[in-house]
Specification:
By secondary structure, this protein is an alpha/beta fold. It is 19% helix and 34% strand.
Length: 205
């Protein structure tokens, strides 16, 4: 599997590119508008076609590069099916599988930060049949969790966020690595660590 993170330290954001070098297919997760050309250039350097562009949720803190990147590459722009946006997108469903050859992504619907939030559980079949890591978007950070108050109905959203973290994410094996959408410096959570990744077991503790 080819895996390339993109970190935006001035605003505490992260985006990711991952895929199968053998089949030559990849996906970009939570892309930023200013780096559309950078994602295309890196994928081309690895002889991979971008087939899926996925936003883990509708972002409030930066402009998504998802629609522009999908248009530029002829790929699918993906959001959870409950997303309320006025542009076309490929709807994702809970437990849906996205097949990228030796790399597989499973969609986990994890509402709370926003109603349409998803996490993406990734398996690299080159290293084994079990999942290796999960992109947690704005649901779970290193040392913190996403804000439930941004869309309104903070108490209701907080309850959903608790369930999403405890029922979906904390039910995963402890050694699963987590790669969040934000780290220290972002306004999308409080008390976030400056660390860029963690594990399910560490965040449970």
């Amino acid at each position: 599997m080819i895996f390339r993170p993109y970190y935006y330290y001035e605003i505490g954001c992260a985006a990711y590119l991952l895929g199968c070098g053998t089949l030559g297919q990849c996906a970009v997760v939570d892309p930023h508008e200013e780096d559309v050309d950078a994602y295309k250039t890196f994928a081309a350097s690895k002889r991979m076609a971008i087939t899926h562009v996925i936003d883990t949720h509708v972002h409030a803190d930066h402009r998504s590069g998802g629609p522009a990147l999908a248009k530029a590459t002829g790929s699918k722009y993906c959001l959870h099916e409950s997303a309320q946006v006025e542009l076309p997108f490929e709807p994702l469903r809970d437990e849906q599988i996205i097949d990228l050859g030796n790399t597989r992504i499973q969609v986990l619907h994890t509402p709370g930060h926003t109603p349409e939030s998803v996490c993406l559980l990734v398996t690299d079949f080159k290293s084994g049949k079990d999942p290796r890591f999960v992109f947690t978007g704005d649901t779970l950070f290193v040392g913190s969790a996403g804000r439930p108050d941004l869309p309104g109905k903070a108490r209701e959203n907080a309850s959903q966020l608790y369930e999403s973290i405890h029922q979906e994410l904390f039910s995963l094996p402890d050694d699963i690595e987590i790669y969040p959408g934000h780290f220290s410096g972002s306004a999308c959570g409080a008390g976030m660590s400056g660390k860029l990744s963690s594990t399910v077991g560490h965040e449970k503790r």
